[in-house]
Amino acid sequence: MRRWIKRVIGAPGSASFQSFRRIVVAANGRRQWADDLDDAELSRAAREVLLSPGGAVAFEPTADMLAVLRTAARRALGQEPFDEQLLVTCALAAGNAVEMETGEGKTLAGALAAAALAVAGHRVHVLSVNDYLAERDAAWMQPLFELLDIGVGWVGQHTPPSTRADAYECDVVYAPVSEVGYDVLRDRFVTSDADRVRPVLDVAIVDEADAVMIDEAMSPLVLAGTSMETPEDFALADALVEELAADMHYAIDADHATVSLTDAGLDLLENRLGGVNLYDTAHTGTLTRINLALHARVLVHRDIDYLVIDDTIKLINTARGRIAHQQRWPDGLHAAVEAKERLPVSSPGIVLDTLTVQDLLRRYTTLAGMSGTVVAVAEELAEFYSLRSGRVERRLLSQRVDIPQRIFIEDQARMDAVKAEIRRRHLEGQPVLVGTQSVAQSEQFEAALAETGIAAQVLNARNDAHEAAVIAEAGGYGAVTISTQMSGRGTDIRLGGPDERDHQRVAAVGGLAVLQIGRYPSGRLDAQLRGRSGRQGDSGTTLTFVATTDELVQANAPAHLLEKIRRRGSQLDQVTLGSIVDQAQRIAESIRRDRHRDTWDFNRAISRQRDTVLVSRDETMNGDRAILEITRRIPEAFDRLASASSPSVVARLARDVALWCLDEQWCDHLAHLTEIRDGIHLQALAGVNPRDEFHRIALREFRGFFTSAYDRAADIVGDVTPAQLGQEITVLGLRRPSATWTYMTSDNPLGSPMDRAARAAGKWMRTRVYRIE
Ligand code: ADP
Ligand code: MG
After folding, report:
1. Between 172 and 235, where is the model more confident?
2. Which residues line ligand 1 (CB under 6 A)?
3. E strands of 709-757, at which residues?
4. Alpha carbon of 351 to those of 185, 472, 673, 705: distances in Å?
């Protein structure tokens, strides 16, 4: 949209919080009134003054309400919320996405909104990106909730089920978004209502909203269970692949997303295998394993994509630069990487159910979000969550200076420049935070600095609590801290250390300097890193050092521009180079946007079918659906069994068997749909719209789902002997998974075939589009 139009009607999805300013001003006039209330009166007042249902919005706090909240915060926490924070509180309570810079105090503003909504009778989840932040924020804000008689709890990875159920009874629950998702998934698989932990999806206030709602929106949360299958053996495939030489036996495509065998490579392998034809259908399995082993060796890198800890593979979430706990690559690849590292190959397990973060969040009645970078994704938040976004300005003007990016042709030249810059600033006592792209790169910089006698703290995918402690020290006099992308997110970096002991001294040498190495795949992530400097009116500087060899540039810049760099590199001026880098980032952003849209579209069909199955499952578990379906099919067998024991025993059997059949059938259906989805790109080559085709096939495959599930249940029940009655269904050979586990599949770093096709096409098209501009 043209700029002037935007100014007149507002950017798509944007909201103005101007009307809330009036309430905040009025609240200032009620300060004395609130201050004069004692604690009990304050809590009572909170419940009496709220009754002003705001028209179209979820909830609009009154001036009296804000006055009560302000007084309560000061009394309970020793922090008096600023007007800007109260503005954020109003915007959140009304169900908006709010942008407020890092360090301006979103935790408190979010807690006040949660309190306002809780006294209004809502159940509120404050969702964070990790356990550490959920626990920290719940503990930090607890006195505020207690003062107002609001129950508060928190849930983390290690919270046992019974405690979870209690926590979800609280008015306000702090939890990582993934944990709530896993609980929703596990609740879907219980065989008795009493086993549910029941998170109530009423209001969600999402912290770091863009990271959760956009960057991770499509990562499926997965519930998996033990299977009887034996893991595939990749040892042979891995040994074969180890012999292959780059360029001769295999070729890597330009954007480092795929690797394929050359004819020479195939010849060599076929020879090694005793002269077989690998393209013969008899060897499909072997060829697949070889391809996966090749992927694992060539495209998946230790310390960049994963770490090896305690003999297991720990994936690094590339969007956050931290360990993605309990994540796996799609089965074959995971086993192939394990083989490459000579680790025991883990059992694949079966996927019982999945839920994307976006699907989970859309199940809340009311959503609100906060982050330092929201407005840039306003359009997507409107499209996917019907959320409006707006910004609340800083309380104090930022003193931060952002120095324009410098671009180097060679990695080494950049390294030298970065080292010199750090050294110069470090000698003056200025704290320096270096933001790198990967664990390997962070270690490379650490080593390079050590050579010049500078000891740096390195922060990379290890653990959240430790990260928080290290990052909190990053503002200390003369500190040098090297981090990967978003490590330590949510933790405040105070000048002069956590206690601000040296604040004056550090401010005098310019505050925190942030040095960014390479650009991130989106402008928002760049802004997040820069935002670590210049908090609450502090001074600070940011510098960005890009090399044209960076992955972002190489993978996304149009081919003709990469060629231009290759041929004329050092003669190109900074402006030209800068525009190439900016363009590469824009392309990366739009690829992500398209992918979000596509994935969501595929996902929606599956999600709707799941909902239908769950309704039926509930009728089976808690109602008489199973008996009705089964007696209708096998009336005589049913009577025979009932007279051998009692109708209630048979009813119980029918119910358990039907539940087993529904769950089993859902797993199969899900696996089937996933396979179809991954293969659908081939249809695109045949000129069919893959989404339409997928929706058509998904519908077709779902037809008869219930008929066949209950048919099967009736068959099983029909074969039951009187002696088997009254026992567990395991005597019938029906086993439920003996253990389940959960994980979040990060986007396959290599992309599914569909992603790759979309990526190639997207890149090509955008190359044209950007050329015209
Ligand atoms: P954000 O999430 O916006 O980055 P935080 O909620 O982590 O910011 O808060 C940043 C820092 O500001 C914290 O150290 C917090 O104690 C402090 N802070 C927040 N609100 C206030 C306030 N009203 N008065 C004083 N300090 C505050
Ligand atoms: Mg925060």
Report:
1. 172
2. 79-82, 85, 100, 102-108, 492
3. 740-744
4. 11, 39, 12, 18
